[in-house]
Amino acid sequence: MSTYVIYYKGGAKMMRPIESRESYLTLRGSRKQKTTVMAIRNGDETQKTHLLQMNYSCLPGEDGKLKGATQASNSVGMDIDHIKAEELEATKERILSKKEELGLLMLELSARGAGYHLVFRRRAELTQEENLRWASELLGVEYDQGAKDITRVFFTTTDNAEDLVYLDDEVFELGGGAEIPEKTDIPDLPEAPEEMEVAEEKRFPREFKGVGYAEIIAEYWRRVGGEPSEGERNKQLHRLAANLRAICDDREEWLLEVMPRYGLPIEEMRTIVHSACKEPTKGSRVMDEIVMVLKRGAGSEETADESEGSATDAQLSLRKLPQGVKDSVEAVGPQLAMPVVTAVCPCIGALATGVTLDVHGQKKGLNIIAYIAGDFASGKGSIDPVVDAWMSEVQALDKMYQTQEDEWRAKKRAAKNKKEQPEEPKLPVRCLTLNNTVANLAERLANTEGKHAYSFTPEADTVAQKWKSTMSDFSIMLRQSYDGTKYEREARSAEAVNVHIERLLWNVTMCGTPDALYRVVNNYTDGFQSRIAIARTPDNTYAPLEEKPYVLTPRQEERIQQIAHLLPLMQGEVVLPKLEAKGREWLERVRLETMMNDDKVGARQRFRVCVTAQRMTCCLMLCKVCEGLIQKHGLNGAENRLKQHPDLWKELLIKAQTAQMLEVYDVVADSLLENALHFFRERIENAFASREYAGSERVVRVKRGKNDTIYDRLDLQFTFEQATQQSIAIKGAGVSRNAVEQMLKNWRKQGLVVFLEKGVFRKTK
Question: Phi then psi for 518, rounded to 5 degrees?
């Protein structure tokens, strides 16, 4: 038998054998895989292209269909799609009842949950299609007529029992081989056997300017809302052909080679393509943009799993982002989508200083502290002008105030020896430099007239150096600003700064290297770290120099400034029930995931991540409200409407809780959690396990991959000893009996397991 995972190398579609159940389940059980499947089943078809792809049928063939294959695989993959919901269970039971006769090797629920993929033993005397027809007749089901070729791949689901219904280890016994000597390292696959190229016989190029047509088409579907559903295939394929022909020389046969068919017969496809090509010849702006974007991201051969964060950035579809935020992303490029969104949310929160959001019953401002981490020359500098664009109106006011201060200083110097001294003005400067002392900064924060102050630094080491001896003061001030609580500073001297702030409101964006992050955050138990929203720039070490670097255009700057102008007009408290429900749903999902892995650090991080993600999503929704008003009334009209109807923004914000914006919440929350754990998991565990931290458990932890949980590694029925063994395998030899007992007690309380008899448990999920 043979099971292969698909990946891309140099524009070619490649596949690598998987030789063990462990490797197979590790791939299927990754957090990314599970999150993507969940998104698809919640209606986001655009996520399908991010799923793992597997192939179970390969033949050497005489037509060059599979380069490198030397013998036939002993298995056949079969796609059964479009099953009615009420017939799913019956179809599954029918397949399982005939598993011996069929030679069933694998059965999984499809990504959309509307069908099944199954793998069975090949009958050597039959062709590929004859094998499918035989199985179809045996099972009494129709197979997908568009999925009968040997190179057909399946979008894989998860390792959960409801997804992976049946698996026989025989499916990993290699029956199709290759004699290509080249080895390639693919992450999450410990073995490195031969690789083979899946490439059909072709008459036309499979790439355009170094970008594969398959990738171009996948990005096209993502931009238009996902692959076509049954009932709209012809219309959507016609539109695809009308755009794609611009990079296929308007040649119908070329289009027929590269376009997907979705089960349509070739003659029907010819009709669709011919109709699209009959229209007057013209270029395609959509294809030009897609090729440009994909070329920018083609500098590294690493997979999505290697480049953590890249998939999250891809999920932040520009189509879903509102004016201002969308322009910010376009100014820095899609690879920096999450970093720039994370960087500007503190700006938006500071501008919407009058907005109070109810999260879990607590009413706070949109208080956000962000850190953009990346190696030098990783693109962080392109965020600077975007932040300036958001804060330009506030900076203009500050410049006027600073001019008044300069005039006061000049008068004070002139009156140095006079009895009458000019009175020092208390001016509400809001954009504050971090290259400052604690006293001066505290005084500035006291003079903002109850509005948010904002600080930005492109070099976080400025903070680390300036506040080196007073980092605890910096931490305290930021922690209190995140919570919007009282801040006081008193001194004995009459000349010294005394500050009494009822609600400290101060949003901050810092950019810097990862090591600078550790100099800014050097205490892992005081809560400062969990209040920071962290984003990472992608690894561009081997990326080619861009022909047209991304820059902030005057038009983008203007659109950002329009939104920034309206945000301060919003005043009041708002409750967003759908956003609150989404936050609670996310919290519960992460709670269960971390409980299954006894991951206390992840479980604790989720609390503030949820709050920060809700605040950030609220910021984006406020921009959506402004965008709608501008589109309907123009900038001046929008301003007048907000002034004349003070509660209008609240009504519109409630309506802005659309499915698209709520999907953004999941992307943001997952990104914040992943980055917090990436940078701080080991340091937090060490801090809580240290002798200096009272009440800590003396548990030795080891770094582990994100694709394992203790719960998932256990069999359906397991013993206490097996739970102990898996806990040790994941967390190290220091796991105590009491720790395992407590873990099992948590699982039983949650309903994840039931107790059968002494020392024996059974999983319920």
Answer: -70, -25
**In the prediction, which pLDDT does 145 show?**
59
What single DSSP character describes residue 761?
Answer: E
pLDDT score at 175: 56
729: enclosing H helix or E strand: helix 720-731
**Are 166 and 275 part of one and the same domain?**
no
What is the SS3 assignment for 734? coil
Q: CA 30 to CA 705: how far, in whole Å?
A: 9
Q: Classify strands 369-373 and 532-536 as parallel, antiparallel or unpaired.
A: parallel
Strand, coil or helix: 755: strand
- The residue from 622, 654, 681 where one domain ends is 681
Residues 6+ apart with CB under 8 A from 100: none
Full residue range of the structural domain in which residue 226 is found: 207-295
Q: What pLDDT, on the 0 to 100 scale, is given for residue 70?
A: 60
Residues 251 and 337 grouped into a single domain: no
- Regarding whether 559 and 624 lie in a shared domain, the answer is yes
Q: State the total domains in the chain.
A: 4
Within a domain: 303: no
Is there a single domain that holds both residue 545 and residue 666? yes
The pLDDT value given to residue 203: 67
459 vs 511: CA distance, rounded Å:
6
Check if the beta carbon of residue 509 is closer than 8 Å to that of residue 346.
yes
Same domain for 702 and 656?
no
What is the DSSP pairing of strand 506-512 with strand 369-373? Answer: parallel
Give me the pLDDT at residue 703, please.
39
Looking up residue 738, the CATH number of its domain turns out to be: 1.10.10
Q: Which two tokens stand for residue 338?
A: 């999450």
DSSP-H helix ranges across 454-541: 461-466, 471-483, 514-520
One-character DSSP codes across 219-235:
HHHHHHTSSPPTTSHHH
Q: Which of 177, 216, 190, 132 is nearest to 2 (CA)?
A: 177
Neighbours of 623 (CB within 10 A): 27
Is 187 in the same domain as 282?
no
Looking at the structure, tell me whether residues 382 and 529 fall in a common domain.
yes
Q: Is residue 552 part of a domain?
A: yes
What is the rounded distance in angstroms from the CA atom of residue 517 to the CA atom of residue 91?
54
Give the end of a domain, one of 177, 198, 219. 198
Examine the domain organization and report whether 523 and 578 are in the same domain: yes
pLDDT of residue 32: 79
> 81-104: per-residue pLDDT in tens?
777 778 888 899 999 999 999 999
DSSP per-residue string spanning 352-408: TTTEEEEETTEEEE---EEEEE--TTSSGGGGHHHHHHHHHHHHHHHHHHHHHHHHH
User: Is residue 687 situated within a structural domain?
Assistant: no
Give 63-123 as a DSSP string: S-SEETB-S--SEEEEEE----GGGHHHHHHHHHHTHHHHTEEEEEE-TTSSSEEEEEE--
196-198 and 75-80 beta bridge pairing: unpaired
10-residue block means of pLDDT along the chain (765 residues)?
70 73 86 81 72 80 51 82 81 91 92 88 85 89 60 82 90 56 37 42 74 85 75 86 89 88 82 85 77 58 34 57 92 90 97 95 94 89 95 94 89 81 86 87 90 93 78 85 88 68 94 91 86 90 76 92 96 95 92 84 91 96 95 92 95 92 91 90 76 43 51 85 83 79 86 84 84
Contacts of 465 (CB under 8 A, 6+ apart): none
Structural contact between residues 381 and 346, judged by C-beta atoms closer than 8 angstroms: no
Nearest Cα to 602, choosing from 757, 453, 706, 713? 706
Please check whether residue 301 lies inside any domain of the structure.
no
Specify the length of the chain in residues: 765
**Residue spans of alpha helices (H) in 415-470:** 438-446, 461-466
422-442 pLDDT, tens digit each: 888 888 999 999 888 888 888
Q: What is the rounded CA–CA span in Å between residue 325 and residue 327?
A: 5
Could you tell me the two tokens for 326?
Answer: 């969308």
Q: 652 phi and psi, to 5 degrees? A: -70, -35
